[in-house]
Automatic annotation (TrEMBL):
UniProt cross-references to CDD domains, sorted A to Z: FYVE_FGD6, PH2_FGD5_FGD6
Name of the protein described by the UniProt record: FYVE, RhoGEF and PH domain-containing protein 6
Region called Disordered, residue ranges: 121-145, 214-235
Keywords: Cytoplasm, Guanine-nucleotide releasing factor, Metal-binding, Zinc, Zinc-finger
UniProt main location, coarse: cytoplasm
GO molecular function, one term: guanyl-nucleotide exchange factor activity
Domain annotation FYVE-type: ranges: 151-210
Keyword Zinc: yes
Length: 358
């Protein structure tokens, strides 16, 4: 009852059988910035709100636990983050620490599990194999809101690798959440989670959504179900030169920054010498090769450097009181790297050392 009274407007939060489990403030990642949100977890729903005045909150959304998924991000660099996926909304949350993140992960996971068990118990005619697709979490494209990749985590189109600029802007695919350019997202499709309203989708999702439609549905569907430009218009859009920076990417650099089978990945500061400026970049060590990226979701590297033949020297950085990693080739300094904390530094040292030996 106290939570209901603290919400602006008329909201029926109190429901028979609804049990309060946990509350707390987490940062919710929008396209560009982190924003604080107050979360309330119940045994059947997750609420998130915005503080409007002392003790009062504006209800932003109430998400059912049916079909919800919660998981850690695949990239270790975002160790405080949590991915929430539900039919209505999907987003990234950030806690103040990995411990707080793990507490929320456990609480939400257990609530989802108990909710699914309760639904099965109240419907004994259903076997475990016949559980409702909504409860299992339907992974069919277009049935769930995707997590939008934040703008700052991609500097290029995630399909064609064209660079984004002030004039050549980012667009989000409403089906998969990837960041794409205008030329790679000229189509619209009616998506189930948007109640079949038309929404911008990338070229890859447009093709997949068409495949999902059965032949009979595709023949009988009205033009309103999906919308694509004429082939002539599409070719014009792909050939528009204004602001588009598209360059040929060598095969050796076509390695995604978010690759899951890397030895180590994350942001590091890099310098070419003790008196040279530092620049933050995203680095990946994979198969004893160091890849350099402008951002963590770019699908092509800026540079690749095989590490075999290099040596690693660890030096105390007086300015930060952390260790700096010197990468040397034939005793000549090649690059200096430094991380944000001691634990991450040690893991990078180990990854570099493993990468430089057979």
């Amino acid at each position: 009852m106290q939570i209901q009274y603290s919400l602006n407007g008329h909201h029926e939060i109190v429901q028979p059988g609804r049990v309060f489990l946990k509350e707390g403030t987490l940062m919710k990642l929008s396209r560009k910035v982190m924003q604080p949100r107050m979360f309330f977890l119940f045994n059947d729903a997750l609420l998130y709100t915005t503080l409007v005045q002392s003790g009062m909150f504006k209800l932003n959304n109430m998400l059912s636990l049916a079909g919800m998924k919660v998981r850690k991000p695949t990239q270790e660099a975002y160790q405080n983050e949590l991915n929430i996926e539900s039919v209505e909304r999907s987003f990234i949350l950030s806690a103040s620490s990995a411990t707080e993140r793990d507490d929320w992960l456990e609480a939400i996971s257990m609530a989802i599990e108990e909710y699914a068990k309760k639904k099965t118990t109240f419907n004994p005619t259903k076997s475990q194999e016949e559980t409702d697709p909504e409860e299992e979490g339907d992974n069919t494209l277009g049935t769930k809101a995707p997590i939008w990749i934040p703008d700052g985590r991609a500097t290029m189109c995630m399909i064609c690798t064209s660079e984004f600029t002030l004039t050549y802007r980012r667009h989000h695919c409403r089906a998969c959440g990837k960041i794409v350019c205008q030329a790679c997202s000229t189509n619209k499709y009616s998506l189930e989670y948007l109640k079949y309203h038309l929404a911008r989708v990338c070229d890859l999702c447009f093709q997949e959504l068409q495949k999902q439609d059965s032949p009979s549905t595709a023949k009988s569907s009205s033009p309103a179900n999906h919308k694509s430009p004429s082939s002539a218009l599409s070719s014009v859009l792909h050939s528009i030169p204004s602001g588009r920076k598209h360059k040929k990417i060598p095969a050796a650099l076509k390695v995604c920054a978010s690759t899951e089978d890397s030895s180590m990945s994350g942001y590091l500061q890099r310098s070419k010498g003790s008196k040279k400026p530092w620049k933050q970049m995203w680095f990946v060590i994979k198969n004893k090769v160091l890849y350099t990226y402008a951002a963590s979701e770019d699908i092509a590297a800026l540079e690749s450097q095989p590490l075999l033949g290099f040596t690693v020297k660890v030096v105390q950085d007086e300015s930060t009181e952390l260790k700096a990693i010197h990468l040397l080739h034939k005793n000549t300094l090649f690059y200096i790297f430094r991380a944000d904390d001691a634990n991450t530094t040690e893991r990078w040292i180990e990854a570099f050392q493993e990468g430089t030996v057979l």
